[in-house]
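FAQ: What does the model actually see?

It sees only this:
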Amino acid sequence: MQIIAKEKSMDDLLHEIRNGDKKSFEKLVKQYYDQLFQFAFQYLQNKEEAEELVQDFFVDFWLKRDQLTIKNLEAYCWVSIRNRSINALAKPHKKIRQVELEDSIAFDPTITVETQELQEKIQKAVSILPNKTREVFLLCREQGLTYQEVADKMGIGKETVKSHMKTALTKLREYLKIEGYLCVFLFFIL
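And it is asked to produce this:
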C-alpha cells in the first residue's frame, strides 16, 4: 500500500509541476537534490561538476516540464542524472549551461515570459554583487573557467575564489528567494 501511495503522490507532484506549481517543484528539488548530487558525484568525482550537472537537470526539467512524457518521476530523475553524468565524462570540454540557456532564450521565440523574467531577475541579482565577487562569479559561470583558472587570471588564491563564489551564491539565493524565483534558480545552489 505504501508504494501505491508514494507513486500516487509522485504522480500528483508531477501533475502540479506540469501546471507550473513552483512549490511542488521546490518540494521535488528538496526531496531529491542531495541524493542526485551524490549519485552524479560517484561518476564525476568532482563536486562542482556534480552540482552543476544536477542543477542543470532541474533547470531543464522546469523549463521543459510541460513537454516531458514521464511515467515514473523518480526513475526519470535517476536515469537522467546517470545519462548526464556519462555524457559529461565523454565530453573533453564541458559547456556552461547558463550560456546555452541564454542562447536558447535569444533565439527561441516561444520562450515564456516567466523565463524571461527569471533571466532579468538573475541579471539584476548578479549586478548588485560586490565587484570582486561579481567578477569571480562571471568568470566561473559565464566564461566557464575553473576555480584555479580564475585564481590565476585574477592573481588570487583558489580558496579566495571559492569564498567569493560561496558569497555570490548565497546572496543570489537570498535575492531570488525574496523575489519568488528560488525554485528555478537551481544552477546556483550550493
